[in-house]
Amino acid sequence: MLKKMSDYEQSLLSMVNKGDRLSPEQLHSVCVHIGFFQHERLVHELVMILFALLSVGGILFFAVYPEIPVLCLDVLFFALLIPYIKHYYGLENGVQRLYEVYDQLEKL
Distance between CA atoms of 1 and 11, rounded to whole angstroms? Predict the structure, then answer.
């Protein structure tokens, strides 16, 4: 999804650099695409929050029942949480950049 967002951003930036004016329908299409990326960002945010809560819960559970299987589960949660944070960070920054490009397209 990050690659798709980056490619879409580059295509919009090329329109801005050329000075292409977009019709209202084309601007609406850009808004729809941004909405899709926002939805993807929201889904990943919710999954990231779930894994963060599971990680914290696993740590608390390990504090009460210090056993190896519980520790392994905690390590698994953290191993999944870190890529989700990285991916969400990329989605958030990409959507913010798309907002800026959209504003530039509107000014044309």
Answer: 15
Q: In angstroms, rounded to a whole number, what is the distance separating the alpha carbons of residues 8 and 5?
A: 5
Q: How confident is the prediction along the chain (108 residues), in pLDDT tens digits per residue? A: 889 999 999 999 988 888 888 888 988 999 999 999 999 999 999 999 999 999 999 999 999 999 999 999 999 999 999 998 999 999 999 999 999 999 998 887
Count of C-beta atoms within a 10 Å radius of residue 50: 14
Q: Report how far residue 34's alpha carbon sits from residue 51's, in angstroms, rounded to the nearest whole number.
A: 26
CA distances to 37, 44, 53, 83 from 91, rounded to whole Å, are 8, 9, 21, 12
- How distant is the alpha carbon of residue 96 from its chain centre? 10
Please check whether residue 61 is in contact with residue 70, taking contact to mean a CB–CB distance below 8 angstroms. Answer: yes
How many other CB atoms are there within 10 angstroms of residue 29's CB atom?
A: 12
The residues, ordered by sequence, that sit 6+ positions from 46 with a Cβ below 8 Å of its Cβ are none
